[in-house]
Amino acid sequence: MQLNGFDEFILKIPGAKTNTFVKEDCEKHKIWGILLPIIAVTPLSLIGLIIGLVIFLTKKDESDYIKYLFNQNLWLFILGFVNIIPVVGQLLWLCVIFLAVVCVYGNVTGKYFDLPLVGGAKIIKY
After folding, report:
1. pTM exceeding 0.70
2. Per-residue pLDDT tens digits for 2-34
3. Whole-angstrom Cα distance, residue 21 to residue 19?
4. What pLDDT, in 10s, does the model give residues 46-89?
5. Alpha-carbon gap, residue 25 to 69, rounded angstroms
6. Which of 87-110 are b and which e, b meaning 16 or more Cβ less than 10 Å from the residue's Cβ?
7. Chain mean position to CA 116
8. Distance (Å, rounded) from C-alpha 53 to C-alpha 7?
9. What is the pLDDT of residue 62?
């Protein structure tokens, strides 16, 4: 796997690492790998969580990639939810946006990054 400067920057953050999944599975669910992180950081994050949960429950035995996407979705939802705390939430919101960018970038490029800082703590094992 060829890494560029942004990849190396992401991998220097504690907790970030890349994952490998079955290529056909990733191609099959690529649209969810792009949409779920984007939805998770909008005011529609609860809808994104519900969509992610439905996909996870219907396809969890099918694919580790689905578990990976749902884990990302859960973390973004949890961190985004903390945004309601006044001063701390505003600073955290910038981090959540950055994590969503890392998710979408990794899912589009096929590098599948665990979320920096929190990715090591997997809510859903894959």
Report:
1. yes
2. 667 888 888 888 878 888 888 888 888 888 888
3. 7
4. 887 888 888 888 877 778 888 888 888 888 888 877 766 766 66
5. 12
6. eeeeebeeebeebbebbbbbbeee
7. 10
8. 29
9. 74
Contacts for 8-11 with beta carbons within 8 Å, 24 or more apart?
10/102, 10/106, 10/113, 10/116, 11/113
Cβ-count burial of 84 within 10 angstroms (0-12 exposed, 13-18 middle, 19+ buried)? exposed
Interval 80-114: pLDDT, tens: 777 667 666 677 778 888 888 888 888 888 888 88
Lookup: tokens for 57:
């429950």
Give 45-61 as a DSSP string.
HHHHHHHHHHHHHHHTT
CB 20 within 8 A of CB 111: no
Question: How many CA atoms, within 13 angstroms, populate the side-chain half-sphere of residue 13?
Answer: 18
- Residue 27 tokens read as 């191609």
Q: Which helix (H) or strand (E) holds 75?
A: helix 64-81
Selection from 6, 24, 7 nearest residue 65 by Cα: 24
